[in-house]
Amino acid sequence: MRKDYISWDQYFMGVAKLSAMRSKDPSTQVGACIINSDRRIVGIGYNGLPQGCSDATFPWQNEGEFTETKYPYVVHAEANAILNATQNLKGSSIYVTLFPCNECTKLIIQSGIKEIVYESNKYQHSKEHQAALRMLKAAGVSYRQITVGELSYVSLS
Hints:
Strand 4, helix 4 (127-139) and strand 5 form a beta-alpha-beta unit. The protein is built from 4 helices and 5 strands; from the N terminus they run H-E-E-H-E-H-E-H-E. By secondary structure, it is an alpha/beta fold. It has a 5-stranded mixed sheet, with helices on both faces. It is globular.
């Protein structure tokens, strides 16, 4: 039997990282993968514009006048994964490349997800992060950090 196969955590975080590669955001690419209790993928997403909004006509800057930045327009990876879900998410887990913001935390809790597995937490000192932690504790949603490393792939072009 092979002994160098990847763990479930590595597999699902790998799917989240692969999803993040679809993001057009030049500064932050985030991916999410939701699994049910049977370890079946039931939703995936990445940060991007809403359907029908052209990537070429909306701004991607992260500084400047609010309406000229990406912030009022981009749908986060967690929200897209929840919206793309193929079944009820009660009791499921979400693998996400970046710890969820407070807004996504509300969606995660409201959808019934009970575990967050994340890789990066670059906003851990922000007020939004503190709000997210407070809500997760109150709602009984667990979270844990894992490190998977770089995802390598073969270009088919």
